[in-house]
Design goal:
Among the domains are: about 210 residues, Fumarase/aspartase (Central domain) (Fumarase C, Chain A, domain 2), CATH 1.20.200; about 60 residues. About 60% of the residues lie in helices and about 5% in strands. The protein is built from 18 helices and six strands. The strands form three sheets. Strands 1-2 form a two-stranded antiparallel sheet. Helix 6 packs antiparallel against helix 18 and helix 9 runs antiparallel to helix 10.
Length: about 450
């Protein structure tokens, strides 16, 4: 289905423009229906185990379902008005004597929720692999550039010197926390829901736990301890919030590249050969980073639908169903594309060391005033007095004058600091604190999380 369509026939760009083919394949109709069938087979395994269906029926349903055309489910739905009932009818009609046991005691969301669990398990596996790749690339950059000096900025202003490796190590740590979240949320969301019409398993005549256990074991899932007609939707809300957090972290990284690629900064930029502008040939636009930031807005917005799906009436209503048909594939495909782009961004990223050193010199040493303050306090000057004097000094610096020159010429400060001390204090390489230990600590944390 759909293979005969071209890009011109699609409505949603996720059908062809965004998201990898491997992720897109998980959410195509063929795979979704196949997962529905897997759950029906699993329930038949449970019915056999509980003595509610003859032995061999699970294998019989597996064989007859291999001939099922997924599109037939939705053709039948036009008359029945229910996709899972259509599937149950088709299997019941085509699976011979065993067909009469298909879907016995089950409800549609036993099938849908458990199928979602199987698909989400596969989708999380794809995301984790791409996130792991990104973390490993950033870790290599953190080590490779651990000594490369650059300006550290707060409020968009020059603050203190840092290194490129220190900057990247911060992203390694943050993204490793998202890797942890993906693992943790999977344990709560990727579970079977096999409990019947309102969750009591009444249709299995007191043998529901046997059905549930055997079916879940067949699928490799742990069951939810208790449900209504549906699995609790707080799990879905948590999942898509976790994905939105990851998307926002990728957005933060992309925004940093975008900011540093400004013409007047030029410290990092995308070096991929491509048309920058249809009008201006000289442009070198950060389009990959900008796409990451744009898609992050979609990922965050989807959280609202997931949160609103939590309050369902009584043992459930249908308001979550239509929302989730859109929400689940869109959230995964959007974040999948963002991870693809982030890995690509690392590959084409150019780091301009010369531009970084030039920018370090823009304040003519004023960036080092905290280092001078600390030394003055060590020499007995009250911190607030040192701070006040240095603020006055930097604001009074003449055009072209450096902090080193201003300190040497200052009537009071020159009495506390020798020329050699001043030269040492205004060197950015001498004021990096415990940067090496902090980089290594972040990388060790990541290795523990990602490689465990």
């Amino acid at each position: 289905m759909g293979s005969e369509l071209s890009e011109l026939d699609y409505v949603c760009p996720l059908d062809w423009r965004y998201g990898s083919e491997e992720m897109r394949r998980l959410f195509r109709v063929e795979n979704i229906v196949r997962r529905y069938v897997d759950v029906e087979i699993a329930i038949m395994v449970g019915l056999e185990e509980a003595g509610l269906a003859p032995r061999g029926c699970a294998e019989a349903v597996r064989r007859c379902s291999s001939r099922l055309d997924p599109s037939e489910v939705y053709r039948r739905e036009t008359s029945l008005g229910h996709d899972i009932a259509s599937l149950a009818y088709l299997l019941g009609e085509s699976c011979g004597e065993c067909g009469k046991y298909v879907h016995l005691g089950a409800t549609s969301y036993d099938i849908v929720d458990t199928a979602w669990a199987l698909i989400i398990r596969d989708a999380l596996g794809l995301l984790r692999a791409k996130l792991r790749e990104l973390i490993e690339k950033l870790s290599r950059l953190a080590r490779e550039h651990r000594e490369d000096l650059m300006v550290g900025r707060t409020h968009g202003q020059h603050a203190l010197p840092i290194t490129v490796g220190f900057k990247f190590a911060n992203y390694v740590y943050e993204l490793s926390r998202s890797y942890e979240r993906l693992n943790e949320v999977e344990r709560r969301v990727v579970r079977s829901k096999i409990s019947g019409a309102v969750g009591t398993m009444a249709g299995w005549l007191g043998r529901g736990l046997i059905v549930e256990e055997a079916a879940s074991r067949y699928l490799g899932l742990e069951p939810h301890p208790i449900t209504t007609q549906v699995a609790p939707r707080d799990g879905f809300a948590e999942l898509f919030t976790v994905l939105a957090i990851l998307a926002s972290q990728l957005d933060r990284f992309a925004l940093e590249i975008r900011e540093l690629s400004r013409t007047e900064i030029g410290e990092m930029y995308e070096s991929e050969a491509r048309v920058g502008s249809s009008a201006m040939p000289h442009k070198r636009n950060p389009v990959t980073a900008e796409r990451i930031s744009g898609l992050a807005r979609i990922a965050r917005s989807l959280c609202v639908a997931a949160l609103e799906n939590i309050p369902l009436m009584h043992e459930r209503d249908l308001t979550n169903s239509s929302a989730e048909r859109i929400l689940v594939p869109h959230a995964f495909l959007v974040v999948d594309q963002m991870l693809e782009d982030a890995n690509k961004l690392i590959k084409v990223l150019n780091i301009d060391r010369e531009a970084m050193l030039n920018n370090l010199a823009l304040t003519r040493g004023a960036i080092m005033t905290e280092a001078v303050t600390i030394r003055l306090v060590q020499k007995g000057v009250p911190r607030h007095e040192a701070h006040r004097m240095l603020m006055e000094v930097t604001r009074a610096m003449k055009p072209g004058e450096t902090l080193e020159q201003a300190l040497r010429n200052h009537e009071v400060l020159s009495k506390y600091l020798t020329a050699d001390e001043i030269r040492e204090l205004v060197n950015p390489a001498n004021y990096l604190g415990n940067y090496l230990e902090l980089i290594e600590r972040a990388l060790r944390y990541s290795e523990k999380v990602v490689m465990r």
